Amino acid sequence: MKMFKKIMAVALVGVMALSMLTGCAVTNTIAEDKAEKALENACKTLTGETVNFKSLSVGSSVTSPVKADIKNGTIQLKDGETYAKTLKSGDKVYTVVVVTEPKNATKIENWKHTALKVVTAAIAQGTADQTEGIHLEGTNDKTAKVNVIVDLEGKDKTDNSKKDTYAMFVFAANDKAYNNK
Fold first, then answer.
1. 20 to 30 A from 172, CA-CA: which of 56, 104, 115, 127?
2. Which pTM value belongs to this model?
């Protein structure tokens, strides 16, 4: 019986350690989901249209350069600022928008203002580059695709010794990126 208790204690410690290691990933997934829902609300507010956002699979050729720019401080934002850029990967076009991640990013209400800025920046970027900032498909039920990445650590614009946390939104900006052809 004592041996059984020892084995169960070791198993319990292993389970607790594993749950601690996966805690951040779960929190990030929740924050990404809340950001996606806030984008849907922002689209409804800005355009009057209901748009359902779905997950977009994006290769590292698109995300890695932006992540590197955040990490090395090339992209530094104050609260309320956005960074928007159109990136091409072959014949696929993406709109990338980076913003400062809101405090307590696992609550949808904290993404409300940020999502409005993200959608506005994405639409404006598309217009500026003569592409679709956010590619929509469908007639009545419109869908768009986005890849949301949170908890990207970078330098704060007002204090370079301080770290800030950013969120990156990668939208399919043309049909090739949307359909992953």
1. 104
2. 0.81
- Selection from 89, 91, 84 nearest residue 62 by Cα: 89
The residues pairing with 163 across neighbouring beta strands, listed in sequence order, are: 155
Instruction: Give the span between the Cα atoms of 125 and 2, in whole angstroms.
Output: 66
Cβ contacts of 107 within 8 Å, gap of 6 or more: 34
Give the E-state strand segments of 19-124 in sequence order. Answer: 51-55, 82-89, 92-100
Least Cα distance to 85 among 54, 128, 117 occurs for 128
Whether 173 shows a pLDDT value over 80: the answer reads yes
Beta carbons of 150 and 31 less than 8 angstroms apart: yes
Q: Is the dihedral of CA 144, 145, 151, 156 positive or negative?
A: negative
Please check whether residue 96 is in contact with residue 161, taking contact to mean a CB–CB distance below 8 angstroms: no
